């Protein structure tokens, strides 16, 4: 009977999942899939480790209205496949660990209560991260579950990167720069040790560019700074999130425009970013295909702000040895990479056009700064942490 680990990566409208076979410290992908379109056009698709399709099924919106419904559907489908295996634990991505958690933890009632207190800091994600945990506890109360945090990778930031220029008492109360996408950055950093060991411990800037986007400065594999901070709103413009914003705008909207805090929050999380700039879509693929000037503005705005973030991180690091792109846009949008790098030529960054167009791993033309596109794998990183915390079975 094979030992297995299940990994859940719940987002605002989808749950990605993977099942890994466990042999000592080794993890082998057995099943990978997602149930996306939660509440709109729910669809479950999963493939085996060989890439063969195991299931492809659509649901009515009312059947899968919430993340908890999605987790029940995934568990129901997976149950017969797990009958021949021993499930030793479940690992979860949890976006916000607050000031309490700088490493993965076993989930219990106290942990859940603490994580619930962080829901206002990550309203798009934290609640949906916790829903699958509750479902699995209900169905399998004996099964160990491990929470792995997107903030944990950044928790040993230098103090100067942790503070806002606010009264210190607020910092002590938890108002500080946490940083996010840490599981992705941690995985990509580990891959650099294999792909480019000459620069893995150097001055590296990673751009996690997808519907959620951020950039991280790494030195010797450690996070030095991240564009996201107290919440996942800060930093780069994203699909529907605004990115960095003058706090005075929020005061203006509430005090002068009469908007409620809930209305402002909904606008900043759901109707801003690329969607707000273009008035068309928050999907970069649609914007690149659109002939409208508003779409072009949104694309240019995104590329400019990513380039500015890379340059800012180069200042933090005292230079830059490598720029790494990851996540959906970073891995699959050559035009965006080209636009970003063109603005960074003054740092010695130069792309090889053919390599970039072919989406190769190594993208630079051999200059002073290496440029790479490295696929991320948050689920594998979660599985590694979960196995380490539970202890590899022998």
Task: Please provide a brief summary of the model.
With 394 residues, the chain is an alpha/beta fold. The chain has 15 helices and 13 strands. Helix 1 (67-82) crosses helix 3, helix 6 packs across helix 15 (378-390) and helix 11 (293-317) crosses helix 13 (334-342).
How would you describe this protein?
With 394 residues, the chain is an alpha/beta fold. The protein is 38% helix and 22% strand. It has 15 helices and 13 strands. The strands form two sheets. Strands 5-4-3-2-1-6-8-7 form an eight-stranded mixed beta sheet, with helices on both faces. α6 (182-195) packs across α15.
Structural class: alpha/beta
Number of helices: 15
Mean of pLDDT: 92
How many strands, what sense, and barrel or not for the largest sheet? 8 strands, mixed
Helix content class = 25-40%
Order of adjacent strands in the largest pleated sheet: 5-4-3-2-1-6-8-7
From the N-terminal CA to the C-terminal CA, the straight-line distance is 13 Å
* Net shape: globular
Q: Tell me the β content.
A: 15-25%
């Amino acid at each position: 009977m094979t030992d297995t680990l299940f990994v859940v990566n719940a987002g605002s409208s989808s749950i990605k999942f993977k099942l890994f076979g466990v042999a000592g410290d080794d993890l082998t992908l057995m099943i990978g899939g997602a149930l996306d379109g939660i509440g709109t056009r729910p669809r479950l698709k999963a493939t085996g480790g060989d890439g063969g399709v195991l299931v492809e099924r659509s649901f009515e919106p009312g059947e899968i209205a919430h993340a908890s419904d999605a987790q029940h559907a995934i568990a129901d489908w997976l149950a017969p496949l797990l009958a021949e295996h021993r499930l030793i634990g479940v690992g979860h991505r949890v976006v916000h660990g607050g000031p309490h958690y700088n490493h993965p933890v076993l989930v219990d009632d106290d942990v859940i209560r603490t994580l619930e207190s962080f829901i206002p800091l990550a309203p798009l994600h934290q609640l949906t991260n916790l829903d699958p945990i509750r479902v699995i506890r209900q169905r399998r109360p004996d099964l160990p579950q491990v929470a792995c945090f997107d903030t944990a990778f950044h928790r040993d930031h230098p103090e100067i990167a942790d503070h806002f220029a606010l009264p210190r008492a607020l910092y002590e109360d938890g108002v500080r720069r946490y940083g996010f996408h840490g599981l992705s950055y941690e995985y990509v950093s580990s891959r650099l040790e294999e792909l480019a060991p000459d620069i893995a411990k150097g001055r590296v800037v990673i751009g996690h560019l997808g519907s959620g986007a951020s950039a991280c400065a790494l030195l010797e594999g450690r996070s030095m700074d991240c564009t996201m901070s107290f919440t996942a709103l800060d930093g780069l413009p994203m699909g529907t999130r605004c990115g960095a914003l003058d706090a005075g705008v929020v005061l203006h909207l509430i005090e002068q425009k009469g908007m409620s805090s809930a209305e402002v929050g909904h606008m900043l999380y759901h109707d801003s970013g690329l969607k707000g700039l273009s008035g068309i879509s928050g999907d970069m693929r649609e914007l690149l295909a659109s002939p409208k000037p508003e779409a072009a503005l949104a694309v240019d705005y995104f590329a400019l702000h990513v380039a500015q973030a890379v340059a800012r991180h180069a200042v933090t690091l005292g230079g830059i040895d490598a720029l790494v792109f990851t996540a959906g846009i970073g891995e699959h949008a050559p035009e965006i990479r080209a636009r970003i790098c063109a603005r960074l030529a003054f740092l010695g960054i130069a792309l090889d056009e053919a390599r970039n167009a072919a989406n190769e791993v190594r993208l630079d033309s051999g200059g002073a700064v290496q440029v790479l596109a490295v696929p991320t794998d948050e689920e594998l990183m979660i599985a590694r942490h979960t196995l380490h915390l539970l202890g590899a079975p022998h």
